[in-house]
Design goal:
Layout: E1 10-12, H1 26-39, E2 43-46, H2 58-72, E3 77-81, H3 87-100, E4 104-107, H4 117-129, E5 135-140, H5 142-145, H6 151-157, E6 163-168, H7 174-183, E7 188-191, H8 197-203, E8 207-210, H9 217-229, H10 232-249, H11 256-268, H12 286-304
Length: about 300
Amino acid sequence: MRNLEKYKGVIPAFYACYDEEGNVSPEGVRALTKYFVEKGVKGVYVNGSSGECIYQSVEDRKIILENVMKAAEGKLTVIAHVACNNTKESQELAKHAESLGVDAIAAIPPIYFHLPEYAIAKYWNDISEAAPNTDFVIYNIPQLAGVALTQSLFTEMRKNPRVIGVKNSSMPVQDIQMFKAAGGEDYVIFNGPDEQFMSGRVIGAEGAIGGTYGAMPELYLKLDEYVKAGEMEKARELQYACNEVIYKMCSAHGNMYAVIKAILKINESLELGGVREPLPSLIEEDMEIVKRAAQMIRDAKAKYL
């Protein structure tokens, strides 16, 4: 019997944590994990886009997940993104994730080469086969992967009993409705784009996974409360406030995740390092943006919590 309740809620995408030399910091990973436990989120999505996964080695990703699981102590739902741009390494990460006891693994489609749907399905199923006792989440992010999850591909993937849902990061909120209508109550659809958290939840997403949640988890937890309670005017106002923070964070020269890590240093005293090249690092002029965004988050928390 599927246990889907553990996936229904606010699930921040986990950030890559580095030391001063730019190597993965186990201490940073454990500190960030404990931060999420304390904030009361449903779970974490590890080694995805926000975790800079395509710029990390297989060993990096293993170290990160091992330390997340160690620090989480069973208090968080853990979804591990395991996709690499080849099947063999993806299977290695899937097997490793299952050995650690994660709740689910997830994977984007193969990138660069535009493969036919039957090859994408085989890639996902081969990864899932390497973790035969673990749930599998399809990660649909066509604007970055270059290929979209179609209804025909979703139909094919539902033949795999381990598939339990879709992390939908495509921009049309209608896609959530279409995947939910096709899968019904046996599948969880996660809202991906943070700027449409409210819209995705209203149209049928039971859970949400997002890259900016970590900077302001309390605000998204409150937004989720408003949606559940049907308080749509309050939800819309808070969604707008969250979006203004996102727009500010995206206005820097440096990558948004570099901005978020700097915000977490100011607001939460977390030392998570920078971002891995070729992602652009912060420049001196970005610090005014960082400070302003950090203040916007504090102001929103004072207003809405």
